[in-house]
Amino acid sequence: MPGTPPNSTTPLPHCGRPCDTECMRFLLKLIINAFALWVTTLVVSGVTVNSYDPAGGSLPLILTYLLLAVIFGLVNGIVGTVIRVVAFPLYVLTLGLISLIVNGLLMLLVSWISDAMGFGLHVDGFWAGVWAALILAIISWLLGLIFRPITRR
Question: Which pLDDT score, from 0 to 100, does residue 12 have?
Fold first, then answer.
């Protein structure tokens, strides 16, 4: 009704658009994954990140981590989902432990894609990829727990 004040069921004119909250969730998850990737490169030997700008600097390195988070999200969302559906019996048979192997292989795939682009993530071997995927998942999960109230608004 035009004369009634807005209440909890009536969205205000400047908010209530799902695009705003979805975009903010996406950006927050992107930043969380980029930060988790940065911590992973500090913790796991054999995992390094090369900036897209050979001159270096903080901003190009931060943008590189953000771009790697996008690449990792796409690979995990598309390729990872297909692998998880196809390999579902192996997940059941191994009680989910095969996910360590799958995530390590996905990390190697992200490394290969970013190397093909001329910058980005470099993983020295399979086990470095498995450890990196495990550390990345744990850090992303912990940060997701911390920032979950923000993404639910």
Answer: 43
pLDDT tens per residue across span 82-102: 999 999 999 999 999 999 999
Whole-number Å distance between alpha carbons of 99 and 114:
22
Q: Angle at CA 149, nearest 5°, toward 147 and 150?
A: 65
Rounded (5°) CA angle 7-13-15: 85
- If we measure between CA atoms, which residue out of 70, 57, 61 comes closest to residue 42? 61
Residue 16 has pLDDT above 60, yes or no: no
| Encoded tokens for 112 | 């290969």
Q: What is the pTM of this model?
A: 0.80
Report yes or no: 45 and 128 within 8 Å, Cβ to Cβ: yes
Contact 139, 113 (CB under 8 A): no
CA distances from 62 to 18, 68, 79, 114, 120 (A): 28, 10, 25, 15, 11
Q: Residue 14: pLDDT above 90? A: no
